[in-house]
Amino acid sequence: MCRNDAHSHSHNGAHAAAAIPRKRYSRNFDGPWRKTPDRLFGTALVRFYQLTLSGFIGNSCRHLPTCSEYAYEAIARHGLWSGGWMGLFRVMRCGPGGTHGLDPVPETLDQDLAWYLPWRYWRISRKSG
């Protein structure tokens, strides 16, 4: 009798553990974002880089998240134009003598960031470096 009870407890425990959804690890942004054609194209380019060239270049990013993760999230959140400029400027700051440390993608952008003034995106992450 005890053996059946022990078996039923472990069996129920296995079902309880299986019912808890496990968080899938992704090195890229996995929050909600609009899947527009420009964002899908931009994030696909970043992902292509991560799967091919990133291994040859090495893991030498001085920021967290890495520059490619930052570009992926910036494009997913803010679109190809804004996110692309943010990602480009982030890579430019990553070299020797540049910024380092925790540098998250902002959830919202300032109102003075206009599409025809792309150099203003430079200051976004410079604040936290």
Automatic annotation (TrEMBL):
One of its GO terms (cellular component) is plasma membrane. It is a peripheral membrane protein. It is found in: Cell membrane. The keyword Cell membrane applies. Keywords: Cell membrane, Membrane. Pfam families: YidD. It comes from the Bacteria. Could be involved in insertion of integral membrane proteins into the membrane. HAMAP family: UPF0161_YidD. Belongs to the UPF0161 family. This is Putative membrane protein insertion efficiency factor. It comes from Phyllobacterium phragmitis. The lineage of its organism: Bacteria, Pseudomonadati, Pseudomonadota, Alphaproteobacteria, Hyphomicrobiales.
